[in-house]
Write a structure and sequence with these properties.
Layout (H helix, E strand, L loop, with lengths): L1 E4 L2 E4 L2 H10 L37 H6 L9 H14 L4 H17 L6 H6 L20 H14 L12 E3 L10 E5 L2 E4 L1
Antiparallel strand pairs: 1-2, 3-5, 4-5
Length: 193
């Protein structure tokens, strides 16, 4: 068979038709291995119950976060810290969420801010999401909040080293007052000491 199109001609043969058929896009098959949602036995865990003060080594920050329980009844410090993580850094990488948590914890230990986590979070003029000295209501069933609770637990347990070690301030890319030292840039935040 000969085909002519705008002065061009081509001849089709059975072999050519078979080659064209093989060149047509074929559906892709995605083969994936299931990955566990949580880590059942973190590295360094021998199966015995952990005593208070014991530490568990996790292979990644994501594993440390996934290993945290998110049950109800968390204490005020966890809820306040999780609220701050949720409002200040939801959508940021886990390392950025942990760094925000560490800023608040560092402030509570610095002697320059209140020593109570909730008082650090609700201190006047420090966090824009705080209204009238209160953290706004959060849908506790949201995935972002459950992640924030888990990150808060990792931070309070000092279960993972933050990239923003010893930072006391953070902001979204604006230069802070002079005299501060940049510690890290994570996601959309810059961390200062």
């Amino acid at each position: 068979m000969t085909i002519s199109f705008f002065g061009l001609s081509a001849q089709s043969t059975a072999g050519l038709a078979a080659e064209v058929e093989q060149m047509l896009p074929q559906p892709a098959v995605l083969v994936s291995e299931p990955t566990p949602a949580t880590i059942s036995e973190p590295t360094g865990f021998d199966g015995d119950e952990l005593a208070e003060g014991d530490s568990v080594a996790y292979p990644t920050l994501a594993a440390a976060v996934a290993a945290q329980s998110t049950h109800d009844g968390d204490d005020d410090a966890i809820q306040c810290l999780a609220g701050a993580i949720f409002y200040e850094s939801k959508g940021e990488p886990l390392s950025g969420q942990l760094a925000v948590a560490d800023v608040i914890i560092n402030r509570s230990k610095s002697g320059r801010f209140p020593s109570d986590i909730c008082e650090v979070v609700t201190q006047r003029g420090q966090f824009g999401f705080v209204r009238g000295g209160r953290i706004p209501t959060i849908n506790e069933d949201s995935r972002s909040y459950r992640t924030a609770v888990a990150v808060a637990k990792v931070a309070l347990a000092d279960a993972w080293d933050s990239d923003a070690d010893r930072a006391l301030y953070f902001n979204r890319g604006r230069a802070p007052a002079s005299g501060l030292t940049k510690v890290a840039s994570i996601g959309n935040h810059i961390f200062w000491r």
